[in-house]
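Exercise (ungraded).
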Amino acid sequence: MEPSKTMKPKGKEPHQTPAQVSRRCFLNILWTALGLGALAEFLWLAFSFLRPAEPGGESQANAIVPVGPLASFEPGTVTAFQKGEFYLVRLDDGGLIALSCRCTHLGCTVPWVEKEKKFLCPCHASAFDITGNVINSPAARALDTFPLSIENNIVKVDTGRRIKRSGFNPEQLVYPPKI
Amino acid sequence: MRAMTPATDPPQRRLNPLGTLVLHFRPRRVAEKTLRFTLTWGLGGMAAVLVTFQLFTGILLKFAYGPVPTQAYDSLVRLQEGFLFGQLVRNIHFWSANLLVVVVCLHGLRVFFSGGFHPPRRLNWVVGLSLFILVLASNLTGYLLPWDQLAYWATTICVGMLEYIPLIGSRLQRIVLGGPQIGPATLRNFFAMHTAVFPALIVMLMAFHFWRVRKAGGLVIPRSPAEEPDDKPPALVPTHPDLLLREAAVALATIAGVLLLSLLYDAPMGQPANPGLSPNPTKAPWYFAGIQELLMHFHPSFAWLIAAALTFGTFYLPYLDYREAPAGVWFASTTGRRTALVAALAAAAVTPLAVVLDEYAVDFSAMMPGWPQAFSLGVVPMALFIAVVVGLYILMARKFRASRLESVQATFVFLAAGWVILTITCVLFRGQDMKLRWPF
């Protein structure tokens, strides 16, 4: 410690060192900042590359599926549509609702069990009633629905727009226009 | 004499460049006591051999596999039926992958219980644990690739679990899936991660892992609890042949074991994936069955909190402020051995009891009508769980006069044993509708 300090020429130190250090510091900071900037650019590039494409307009338009004439769905029935992955449910009072067939717990496909009048999930034993409400956990919310409309007695379901809900309420039902 | 000093023998060196390369990674001499088989059980070496197996068979499989939903299943059928040794290569890949999870897990336990995580080996614990997570991630992403019913639905529920991660779950799930549900984009993502990102990371981290072993001066030197640590430099033996021969023996035994398994048992292959039909029951791959079992008892977000806390805790283990650092003593001390055993027995009693009670007797959500499920199935069981863990810790400290290290070790044993029991419960004791059943 001692010798090295005394070795350095006195007087030179206070003048030169601060200037040298600050220039070096400045350059170091500059390079670090540039490096971080470049890294951020690459990360941004990677993330925007990897981000899943949002569903475009055309898939929205095609997603509205005509599922059949109103008369073919009797009150108190559940009809499965494998392709669109939904059930068309017609309650006893004539109200219609389109339920997603995917369990809200972990995404298994829930079959409708006619004997028990329940949707029973084979994966973790969640159960849903005919309106999609949870009867049996672990599922925490009711089956998702899809918007449904009736035009010229033809039932149409928009499978592109999945609606999450916590439970069933009668406003979600669609009734055929009274004639 | 010649064998002991290969570096001074130029002709031999020129003849065998690979041999000298291997030697170059190693110190010339290693402590004699670290060669004891019952210190390492050869687990790290086995893991390295299995990773090598995975790289080689993985490259071969890549030439046969079509990573698109319409081709994936058929390409594997063609591989198994049309390629010479196609089935064997796939079997080796399958068995090595599963064994790798087991071996890496045991390796981690060995390091923990022989005190291999104390300074200067703290960072290497973190690196090793990261490797374990990468191995799990590789296994999971590989699980989807056959695109059969098993693959499709196990992945569905694994990815379904992601949705419940607080705050970022849904977004993360969308990124992983590459869309609203499992489809071509998911397979593409999983294939890219499985065949490029994870292997690259694993190989890089392995190199770092090995370098840190060497930087720490080799392995911990085993001693019994009564022995004081040696201040003298340990007795050394030459790496070649003493260590290399032992390593070769472990490697050959591992290769023989994997080949035997692969000849006897084929990798599973079910019906092609059918998005409209979930099999009953649908289970996650066995190494995630613990999480699935946890999800059956806790509100999903809380199950994730527990899993995240356990993972973070395991990473942080070496950095807790211990007063002693008994590297090389199995289970730290005589007290440590006793408390670890008590904790393991406690877990073996408490975990099955809790599972059975929750299944048949206790229904928190029915007991607390009007309360949200997040409270009755989340906060309440979580509080019970924390109470048990804290109670165990206090019991260790008070009753057994365990030091912090010994209490932390006992808690770790309790949680790890509990995890193993949850995994076994889900894999063996859950049948139709995921109800408890007797498997035998």
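Further reading is listed at the end of the chapter. For now, observe: The radius of gyration of chain B is 24 Å. The first helix of chain B runs from residue 10 to 15.
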